Amino acid sequence: MTATHALGWALVHSLWQCALAAVALALLLAIVPAPWARLRYALATATLVLTLALPITTAVRVGEASPATPGNGLATSAVASPPASDARPAARTALPEGATVEQETPRGYTPTSPAIAALRLASRIRTALEPVLPWIVALWLAGVLVLSARLAWGWIATRRLGAMGTRPAPVACMEALERLAARLRVSRPVRVLESAIVQVPAVLGWVRPVILLPASALTGLTPLQLDALLAHELAHVRRYDYLVNLIQSVIETLLFYHPAVWWISGRMRQEREHCCDDLAVAACGDAHFYAAALLGMERLRVTAPTLALTAAGGSLMDRVRRLVTPAPAEILPRWTAGVIAVTLVVAIGGGSRLVRASGESAAADRPSAFVAPDDARTAPDTVLRHPAPARPLAERWDWARHQAQQLGGRSFWVGYSVHPPAGGARGGGDSAGADDIALLFHFREREGRPPVLQHVQPTSFLLPVDFGGAPLLWLGPADDRASLAQLQALFAAAPTTDLKEDLIAGVGLHGSSDAVVSLLGRWLAGDARASVRAEAAEWLGHRPTPAAVHELARAARADPDEDVRQEAAEALRHNALPAATDSLIALARAVDDPEARREAVEELDHKGDPRATAALIAIARDDRDADVQHEAVEALGAIRDGSGVRAVIDFAHSHPNPDVRSSAVGTLAQAAAPDVALAVLKDVAYHDRDRHVQRKAVEELKRVDDDRVIAALVEIARHHPIRDVRREALKRLGDLETPDSATAALLEGIASEGSDADLQRDAVEALGHLPGAQALAGLARLARTHRSAEVRREAIERYAKAAAPESARLLLTERLENDRSPSVQAEAIEGLTKLPNQLGLAAVSEAARAHPNRDVRAEARRRLAERP
After folding, report:
1. Residue 362, exposed/middle/buried by CB under 10 A (0-12, 13-18, 19+)?
2. pLDDT of the residue at 485
3. In sequence order, what DSSP letters do the residues of 337-394 get, joined into one string?
4. Which pTM was predicted?
């Protein structure tokens, strides 16, 4: 069988294989709720990888097939000569004495007439397709070449985005990026650049990621909206989505001919955006505000190159609807997404099936569930069952090692069953309950040395397992005490950290809480790697016992690794025992390490316990570390029943630390009712003794969902006694982007009156952010008539950014010709050169040739020379 024919058959078979994978994904996505984005993304990713693995596996298998077995997998001799006896061929010429053997070949199979007819039909189809296989491969290669060129263009365009028309982003954006990166735990260095090409935020690269911010977004979005979108892009960086997107594009190129693959890939991209939305909401703290930021960005949307990840990905309305719709509780643990994803890959990929047996005879034959007769590559080639499953597990384990030596293979599996934590009464004999857990251990012999553990597979009897054709030595059921002793011995000898973590997962699946907690507690307190200790802490969190709380509290307080401390504190949050709440309170109040106290405080707001609220109030009032106090204030605002808001209001008015008062002010805007937040923030803006807190209160006013916010900001902008606070109010009026004509008139009036140039420029800047003709008309009047050249210059700059290109050209040309200030004329020249489609170059060229001011002519020539 040539490679061309093998590839051709793989392409033909992929038509139904990928379609089946898509149907399975559709069924799973119909079951999994939309808010569970991580699980849905894992399922879509696993299915897309599977669509590539299936044709590759088919090509390999067909290529290795003998001439007697055609490439379509049907033996033509089966039609002429069906099996005539009940004999089952032995898998080995000699078997160990006393072992029970189970083979996967069906007994007494004789094709019926429909079976023969199906074989003949398949043979005719194979005969008809055989001559056209080279053409199928040729067409596929041509398509791959075309799509590869498209992919290469996307890569080149993406590289150009990061290299052309960029400059460092404003300092405020860089500071926001550092703050959000710390909050999202992004440890890699990330650059942020302002781009004149892109029109929506985008992230490029995964080794040295770069976030591109469009110039229009820096002026068209409020700082908080921009923070929310930066958080979205940082979420892509944290998840290595750029690399995943590149691999995804390669799979799309190879399987371009299959609509199901494009559908699966589209769902994967959609769920990826949902995952990043969730992380961004966690960073900015308000799903409705983040949804508003997405809607504000929609007007900036354009098509981005394939390899660039942008905040505009996915269906905007679906994303907004998902964000503002209350989400059902995610009752599954985080690792469930990975388990289900791996299960999907193996299940559809033709792995061996763990089917439920029916009746007592099937219960006695439980290991047969591991056999997959239709796929000898993934099923065990032999299943040996221990003849006396009531014997001690250690004795049966030694029997399995001895049988593996007699079989002579270099690879084998040992397995037994245990009862899970929620299991009922323990059964006797050799039967296993349908909900039992199978613990499977893969050993391999290397260069004559004793077999070494390679893989641990905890699974259910309803889930598939890939045995790779190696034999399975099945030991039957095991009690928790013996099983945990065996796992402890394997843990001590495990050569890798990954194996130790898998063994911890196996321990966590046992039903005996006391024994499991004792063993996990020893490992958590031991000297294993931090990732192993963190895994033990996570599994301890599933055991609501006092002993588990004790071990977790000790680790959260004293473990030398920050990740382990954080995992232990998070596990205490999920523990429903009152002792877990007491432990978190003790950690938050008494631990010397401020980071450990902060982590404990962060988890307390989830408890919904009056004791937790009282502890947070005390911590916010008198903790010796300001960051811990800030965390306590935020936690009080996040308590779901609103019981912490009263304390936050008190702290905003009276806390002795101005930084904590600022934190309380920021928390109030989201936590309190709009009318309450408006009243408190306005009061703080006028009466706090620190002007920085006053400015913070004014800044947070724009986040309050109340129609009276505009009036409050207007009043502060006109009448507040402190200049910096008035300027802050002007900025926030611009951030609101209200089309209210009265607000535009007010800002124009402030820009025209008085002698404070900074305040006047702030008013012009705010006016430039407002939508509508009234704001544009005000900017035009200020650009023509204001007595200050600096204010006229600011007005020209804002008008050029906000107005239509033709209107901007007319005003800029008029100011270039008639304004008396060289700085204003220079600003007009700069604005004209930036207009799209070279709309302003004629006016600049005329100024370079004939303007009466020599400096203006020089500036025009310089701008023309700088153009590419």
Report:
1. middle
2. 92
3. HHHHHHHHHHHHTTPBP-PPP-HHHHHHTGGGGG--TT-TTTS-S-EEE-S-TTS-HH
4. 0.46
